Amino acid sequence: MSLLVTAEVVPLASDADGVVRVGFSRVSLDTVVAAFREGMTPEGIVEQYPSLQLAAVYSVIGYVLALLARLRVSSRPEELPLVSAGYRAEVERMQREVLDYLTQPATPTAKAS
After folding, report:
1. Which of 1, 36, 63, 76 has CB atoms 3.0–4.6 Å from 10's, for a disulfide?
2. Separation of alpha carbons 39 and 36, rounded Å
3. Which of 67, 77, 61 lies closest to 22, judged by CA?
4. Please, which residues have CB within 8 angstroms of residue 90's CB and are 6 or more apart in sequence?
5. Are 95 and 88 in contact (CB under 8 A)?
6. What global pTM score does this model have?
7. Averaged pLDDT, groups of 10, the chain, 113 residues long
8. What structural domains does the chain harbor?
9. Dist CA 83 CA 81 (whole Å)
Protein backbone atom coordinates (compact mmCIF):
# COMPACT_ATOMS: atom_id res chain seq x y z
CA MET A 1 0.00 0.00 0.00
CA SER A 2 1.43 3.37 -0.97
CA LEU A 3 0.78 6.69 0.69
CA LEU A 4 -0.53 9.44 -1.56
CA VAL A 5 0.85 12.80 -0.47
CA THR A 6 -1.02 15.85 -1.73
CA ALA A 7 -0.77 19.56 -1.04
CA GLU A 8 -3.84 20.94 0.65
CA VAL A 9 -5.03 24.48 0.08
CA VAL A 10 -5.69 26.33 3.33
CA PRO A 11 -9.42 27.20 3.30
CA LEU A 12 -9.13 30.97 3.62
CA ALA A 13 -10.70 33.70 1.51
CA SER A 14 -10.76 37.46 1.72
CA ASP A 15 -14.13 39.18 1.35
CA ALA A 16 -14.85 42.52 -0.37
CA ASP A 17 -13.89 44.39 2.82
CA GLY A 18 -10.56 42.58 3.11
CA VAL A 19 -11.65 40.42 6.04
CA VAL A 20 -10.11 36.95 5.87
CA ARG A 21 -12.84 34.29 6.27
CA VAL A 22 -12.53 30.57 6.98
CA GLY A 23 -13.85 28.25 4.28
CA PHE A 24 -17.15 29.31 2.79
CA SER A 25 -18.38 30.71 6.11
CA ARG A 26 -18.73 34.26 7.38
CA VAL A 27 -16.49 33.43 10.36
CA SER A 28 -13.28 35.45 10.27
CA LEU A 29 -9.79 34.06 10.65
CA ASP A 30 -9.29 36.41 13.59
CA THR A 31 -12.33 34.90 15.34
CA VAL A 32 -11.05 31.33 14.94
CA VAL A 33 -7.52 32.25 16.04
CA ALA A 34 -8.82 34.19 19.06
CA ALA A 35 -11.06 31.29 20.11
CA PHE A 36 -8.15 28.85 19.83
CA ARG A 37 -5.84 31.15 21.80
CA GLU A 38 -8.52 31.39 24.51
CA GLY A 39 -8.35 27.60 24.90
CA MET A 40 -11.19 26.35 22.69
CA THR A 41 -10.58 23.10 20.86
CA PRO A 42 -11.30 22.88 17.13
CA GLU A 43 -14.39 20.85 18.02
CA GLY A 44 -15.51 23.59 20.41
CA ILE A 45 -14.97 26.24 17.75
CA VAL A 46 -17.15 24.29 15.30
CA GLU A 47 -19.78 23.87 17.99
CA GLN A 48 -19.71 27.63 18.61
CA TYR A 49 -19.73 28.44 14.86
CA PRO A 50 -21.72 25.69 13.12
CA SER A 51 -21.10 27.10 9.63
CA LEU A 52 -17.47 25.97 9.96
CA GLN A 53 -16.24 22.53 8.97
CA LEU A 54 -14.01 20.72 11.45
CA ALA A 55 -11.37 19.92 8.82
CA ALA A 56 -11.21 23.59 7.82
CA VAL A 57 -10.67 24.67 11.43
CA TYR A 58 -7.88 22.13 11.93
CA SER A 59 -6.29 23.17 8.64
CA VAL A 60 -6.40 26.88 9.46
CA ILE A 61 -5.10 26.44 13.01
CA GLY A 62 -2.27 24.21 11.79
CA TYR A 63 -1.38 26.70 9.08
CA VAL A 64 -1.38 29.68 11.46
CA LEU A 65 0.69 27.83 14.08
CA ALA A 66 3.27 26.79 11.47
CA LEU A 67 3.42 30.28 10.03
CA LEU A 68 3.81 31.88 13.45
CA ALA A 69 6.58 29.44 14.31
CA ARG A 70 8.42 30.32 11.10
CA LEU A 71 7.97 34.04 11.74
CA ARG A 72 9.15 33.74 15.35
CA VAL A 73 12.28 31.87 14.31
CA SER A 74 13.13 34.50 11.72
CA SER A 75 12.14 37.53 13.86
CA ARG A 76 14.00 39.48 16.50
CA PRO A 77 12.13 39.98 19.81
CA GLU A 78 11.31 43.60 18.99
CA GLU A 79 9.61 42.41 15.78
CA LEU A 80 7.21 39.96 17.48
CA PRO A 81 4.29 42.43 17.55
CA LEU A 82 4.45 42.34 13.74
CA VAL A 83 4.02 38.55 13.69
CA SER A 84 0.21 38.71 13.76
CA ALA A 85 0.25 40.96 10.70
CA GLY A 86 2.60 38.49 9.01
CA TYR A 87 0.01 35.76 8.61
CA ARG A 88 -2.31 38.21 6.81
CA ALA A 89 0.40 38.99 4.27
CA GLU A 90 1.01 35.26 3.74
CA VAL A 91 -2.72 34.60 3.26
CA GLU A 92 -2.94 37.42 0.70
CA ARG A 93 0.07 36.00 -1.18
CA MET A 94 -1.53 32.53 -1.25
CA GLN A 95 -4.81 33.99 -2.50
CA ARG A 96 -3.03 35.78 -5.35
CA GLU A 97 -1.29 32.54 -6.34
CA VAL A 98 -4.56 30.58 -6.32
CA LEU A 99 -6.35 33.31 -8.29
CA ASP A 100 -3.52 33.41 -10.85
CA TYR A 101 -3.73 29.63 -11.20
CA LEU A 102 -7.52 29.63 -11.59
CA THR A 103 -7.50 32.42 -14.19
CA GLN A 104 -4.83 30.86 -16.40
CA PRO A 105 -6.16 29.68 -19.75
CA ALA A 106 -6.76 25.95 -19.82
CA THR A 107 -4.20 23.95 -21.72
CA PRO A 108 -5.66 21.44 -24.17
CA THR A 109 -5.10 17.81 -23.22
CA ALA A 110 -3.67 15.41 -25.73
CA LYS A 111 -6.14 12.93 -27.17
CA ALA A 112 -5.34 9.26 -26.90
CA SER A 113 -4.74 7.61 -30.26
Report:
1. 63
2. 5
3. 61
4. 67
5. no
6. 0.63
7. 77 88 92 90 97 95 83 60 62 64 60 52
8. 12-95 (1.10.10)
9. 5
